[in-house]
Amino acid sequence: MSSSTDSANSINYRFNSFAPRNFTLVLVICGVLLFVCVLASLAFGSRLVSWNELIDGLFHSNTDSYGANVVRKRVSRTVFSLFCGAALGVSGALMQAVTRNPIADPSILGVNTGASLFVVSGIAFFNISTANQFIWFALAGAAITAVFVFGIGSMGRGGATPLKLVLAGAATSAALSSLVTAIMLPRSYVMDQFRFWQVGSVGSGSWDSIITFLPFLIIGMLLGIFSASALNALALGDEMATVLGIKTSMLRLIAAVAAVLLCGATTALAGPIGFIGLLSAHAIRLMLGPDLRYIIPLSAISGAIILTISDVIGRLLGSPGELEVGVVTAFIGAPLLIILAMKLKVRSL
Hints:
mainly alpha; globular; 349 residues; ABC transporter involved in vitamin B12 uptake, BtuC; single chain
């Protein structure tokens, strides 16, 4: 009993000693940045709208000017972008916690590619076309790939080390990408439908897709937030967590289900957008420390900020068209991944 009490005290000391005194400040800054990103998303695009048009589009439904209608069409895209960014941010934070891998991310571990394979297979062989069908196929692909990568990464001495998981994810992603290409090439109609989705974009966000996405977002977020405290204990090692009465296998399963729900649903509707989970979780960890009770909810806000501002940047760079947001996040995230891999030497969290 005394051993269990001492272990509990050590956990409390570790995380309370990192208790972020500047949490309120960070939260306020994130809130301000989120508000600015929302305004930018509504105002910037192939057509720049004025402040008056922005007000008319948001608050004066009887105004029928072109600018006001442009703003109204951008509202659903902005909301969709916020939700997708939040989902990917939390998914990345959960994957890093479950695998104890500081560079874990749905795109790095091959989960996005697994979802892509199942979606393209659904288009080619089952003629799927609705958002609801896309989600279920993507969830199945994401779940199977996550289990496969973790299983491969767990083989051999040392179990699922960060380096082995990244290598397993990279190899799996490469193999699945080849399968995606093999399915698409002989079927031009599949390629036409799939190629724009594959890049990753929030441009197709509509109220229908938001409503379809919302249940998966809510369930995944709740599971992630409620498992945060137990995941803090898991960060100290399986033995310590077991001493504290935590069922580590069940905890990993719950957190993994949450991550797959968030990642799979987002990938189904917006395509495989990479690096959001990596960027958002590390930004919050850098400011507030290792406590997942703060990292997980604030990763949702930072993920929403990063994806929304990336979408705005893509619209500005590609004007009068647009550069897909998946290209922008890859351009930003790839150098960060290299820096983190060099700095952290892919050590465990």
